Amino acid sequence: MLLGLQQELSEEQNQWFMRSGTMHLFSISGLHIAVIALALEGMLGLLRLPRVLRFLLSALLLWLYVDITGTAPSAVRAYLMVMLLQASFVLRLPVNPVATLSLAALGALVIEPMQLFSASFQMSYGIVASLLLLGLPLGDFWTKRWQLFRSLPKATWTWWQHGLDWAQRGLLGVLAIGLATSLVSTICGVIYFRLFTPGALVANLVLIPAGSLVILSGFVSLICGLAGLGWLCATFNHASALVLWLAERGIEFFLKVPGVFWSAHFAATWAGFTTLGVLMAALLWGYASRWERRYGSVWAPFAIVVAAIVLGVKFG
Q1: How far apart are CA 260 and CA 198, in angstroms?
Q2: Dist. CA 78–CA 66, nearest whole Å
Q3: What is the per-residue burial (b if ≥16 Cβ within 10 Å, else e) of 119-149?
Q4: CA distance 245 to 236
Q5: pTM for this model (two decimals)
Q6: Mean per-residue pLDDT, 266-280
């Protein structure tokens, strides 16, 4: 998982993670790069280095990780995105995630224009775009609509009220992001993998935090190994193995639930790519119009995906 070595998985494991919609955990992408970048930032922050020097060292060490894992296009794209975000903080510029994503995509296409037609490019940028354009606004909309203790001044809240509010905001935010990103992953899954995985949302809500822990533990293990702390290195490796074993057993059981995944394909190849294009256009239009009710609000992209699945997809 840390190095993206999918070939190390058995055929059975490969099928488990593919059918649960969690195979992305074994591809070096935004999740891996973000976790390693946060770990590096924390480690270099403890050294009390100047901001610019910390940024340069982080960029160098993070690129070393990308290079070790084979400089996969998805890893390079994620690296560009993370470095642009970090650069905005270093230069004390306003952070605009959508503009950063656009610039990263443009840089990747300048390096290799044919990436535009690859499944990896379309899925990685499409999923991040849906997160930024729909997931975050949807999370804000839900937290404002279902705000706890609305009639009480926040200064009078007790500790448990603050705790409940924090938990609800986190849960609604994660759920909104999961639903938004599942739109692109659902369409791409049917196009490229001939799988419809409605259970992927639930599986990812559990396995993405677990996978992040494994990646972080692997990074710490590498640092401990370089420092000559072999016993501590082994401790983190065994902790990762335990988490992965639990994840594997959970996926094995989860896939026995009826309706978690279906074999599916678009009746016409063009229908899948057309749906993906219409979906991305709807996300951009909705974000630009601030998801106004007269344009279908936040539900228009969901309606597009449901219509495409019902009218254009064959199961079995």
Answers
A1: 6
A2: 10
A3: ebbbbbbbbbbbbbbbbbbbbeebbeeeeee
A4: 14
A5: 0.83
A6: 93
Nearest to 124 by CA among 114, 112, 116: 116
Please name the helix (run of DSSP H) or strand (run of DSSP E) that holds residue 183, with its range, or none: helix 159-188
Query: What pLDDT was estimated at residue 94?
Result: 79
Dist CA 205 CA 261 (whole Å): 16
Q: Lowest-pLDDT range, 8-12, 154-158, 174-178, 295-299?
A: 295-299
Rounded Cα gap, residues 97 and 102, in angstroms: 9
Mean pLDDT score, 261-272: 92
Distance CA 298, CA 138 (A): 7
The CA angle 222-226-227, to the nearest 5 degrees, is 115
Query: What single string gives the DSSP state of each residue in 184-207?
Result: HHHHHIIIII-EE-TTHHHHHHHH
Dihedral, CA atoms, 32, 38, 41, 43, nearest 10 degrees?
-90
At 12, which amino acid appears?
E
> According to the model, what pLDDT value does residue 296 have?
63
> How far, in whole angstroms, is CA 55 from its chain's centroid?
23
Residue 160 has pLDDT above 80, yes or no: yes
Q: Helix, strand or coil for residue 255?
A: coil
Name residue, tokens 């449901």. 306
The answer to whether 98 touches 167, Cβ cutoff 8 Å, is no
Q: Can you tell me which residue has the tokens 């390693």?
A: 36
Query: How much is the CA Rg of the chain, to the nearest whole Å?
Result: 21
| Least confident stretch, 96-105, 243-252, 279-288 | 96-105
